[in-house]
Amino acid sequence: MLFPDQLASLQSKRVDAVSPVEPFVSQARGAGARVLLSYFAGFQPKVTVGTYFAMKPYIADNGDVIDRFVRAMNRSLTYAQTHPDHARQVVLSYTKMPPKVAEKMKLSYWSSNLNVPSIERTAQAAKQFGFVKTAPNVEDLIWHQPG
């Protein structure tokens, strides 16, 4: 079920529970829904939710591109974390969310530092809940920028 459709399905009692992400969590709360479980923040504080991947040969052949990408991403993450009002405005630019909902939505924690313990916990949970047969070695997945 698409995130925008979940609240209506809950309100019409077609489902007993939904699993939205922000801004739909805040929208559901505003409509009186009760949070039973929070995937990200409830799983681990400051959890690393998203990362970027590249193949080793590409990294080796395009170090300048990788360096520029990492710098740009880190600047954007720092900016979003230190300018929450602007981050909320950006969300409004690509959603149909009412501004009042954006004002109240819980923003992600953005950091240029990977929370390695949270990534390891996610890998273990993926194994525990049957998404993978073997938890990956997290250190094998993380590229450490030289210097």
Task: Please bin the fraction of helical residues.
Answer: 40-55%
Q: What is the 3D form? A: globular
So how many helices? 8
SSE order: HHHHHHHH
* Ends apart, CA distance between termini: 45 Å
List how many beta strands DSSP finds.
0
Q: What percentage of the residues does DSSP assign to strands (E)?
A: under 5%
SSE class: mainly alpha
Major sheet summary line: none
Mean pLDDT comes to: 88
Low-confidence stretches: none
**C-alpha Rg (nearest Å):** 18 Å
| Domain module count | 2
How do the helices and strands line up, and which of them pair or pack?
Blueprint: H1 3-11, H2 24-30, H3 56-61, H4 63-82, H5 84-94, H6 99-104, H7 116-128, H8 138-141
Can you describe this structure?
The protein is an all-alpha fold. It has two domains: 1-37, no CATH class; 38-141, no CATH class. 52% of the residues lie in helices and 0% in strands. It contains eight helices and no strands. The mean pLDDT is 88.
List keywords for this structure.
147 residues, mainly alpha, 2 domains, 8 helices, globular
Give a brief rundown of this model.
By secondary structure, the protein is an all-alpha fold.
